[in-house]
Request: fold
Amino acid sequence: MDGRILILGAGHAGGTAAALLRQQGWNGPVTLLGEEPVAPYQRPPLSKAWLKGEADAASLALRPETFYAEHHIALRLGARAERIVRGEAGGEVQLEGGEVLAYDRLIVATGSRARRIPLPGLDLEGVMELRTAADADRLKAALRPGAKLAVVGGGYIGLEAAASARTLGAEAVVIELQPRLLARVAHEVLSAFVHDYHRARGVSFELAAGVDALEGEGGRVAAVRLSDGRTIACDAALIGVGAVPNQELAQAAGLTCDGGVVVDLRACTSDPCIYAIGDCTRRPLPLYGCMGRLESVPNALEQAKQAVADLCGTKPPTPETPWFWSDQFDLKLQIAGLPLDVVRTLVRGEPSTARFAVFHLNADDKVQAVEAINAAPEFMAGRQLIASRRPVQPAKLQDISISMKEVAA
Amino acid sequence: MAKITYIEFNGTEHVVDVKPGLTVMEGAVKNNVPGIDADCGGACACATCHVYVDPAWTEKTGTPSAMEESMLDFAEAVEPNSRLSCQIKVTDALDGLSVRMPESQH
Reply:
């Protein structure tokens, strides 16, 4: 409990790991290294409450500014790691500028970055992505009443940004390559519902529409050119087409990577002195008997707990069912589990009431995943059913006169 | 500032000053009080900031919303004084509040 721990990445995962190490009694030096100039903060509100002006910068911070010094955590911000040099019982990290930090144990928490698609015009002013607080500042400044935001990518980030834009009085058009929204991540019933809900609130859509280029005027984005030749005028463009793991440092150091730094359930990498946590990892998903990469705060927290428990010799955390949430207008979307090995999908409730849930069942009528819209009981019960692996009776599940408590009993 | 006492499941007490306007959950997380996970950061989406409000204070902390109720319905070890601490806004009137934590948030 007195070795030197270096945490690479001061996001939600890294920041949480540092705090937990102190909570669990680690006495040795803890250094938290981040590329961004700000202390660890919550990213989810950047496209939601924060963007709409319902949360301020201080409320985004994971911990108060004084926290790190009080807990003897060396917070190094605006610092970029260039290389991990592994040794027998520890190693060192070389920083840009030549400084070298030695570690006994390393935690890689480098996160993910917005996926970039090779489009002409990406360097125009007003073309943005949404990942960091700085990105969110720029987007917020562009969302003046009457301004028109073009969102390339109909995923969660893009839809949250579009909803926030409308709430702020800006126009929003979402352009999606697939014929439906959330195509990679949600059931079509949910896609259709979200589409109609956004349309009714003034968001316009271009589905099954490829983007050829961003066009500018005087160096500033003015339109998105679609593959069919049409152009969509805009004052700002947000590109939200997924994320890729920041695994390059780990990979260059010879750690096993496979679309993410490969870890076990202790969050340990192929080097016993190095852990990896959060968006940058590919991790076991015990409920599904496979490996996967999860981009969510609950995952970052769970893996931070796993790593810290292993380091401190404390009780490992209870395994989590993967889950995440999204807020769009007044909708609360809560999604748990992964729709793997699904043979049947049931809808509980009526989408037209804006309160329903989509349950994904496997061949044994066990719940693999649930997508709940303004339906907290369905989400909570669904999450428990996914974890318990108890089969459900489909007829009961679809009958809204039977409470979820009873369905899950 | 409102003085709030957080009592861990094992009995360990943490007394911290919380700025009015923050939530009871934020008061714990920002002061590194263990036992309140708050996975969703206060969006009332996860029920991992479950606390038991000291019965003397339940009137002042108010009643849960329908959303909070249905989240609590499925939390572990729920009691009549159970609340999600992200849904309790701290005011000067809560100076002296005491909350206990469940054994686990998961």
Notes: The longest helix of chain B spans residues 66-73. The CA atoms of residues 44 and 67 of chain B lie 8 Å apart. Chain B touches chain A through 23 residues (CB under 8 Å). Chain B has a mean pLDDT of 93.
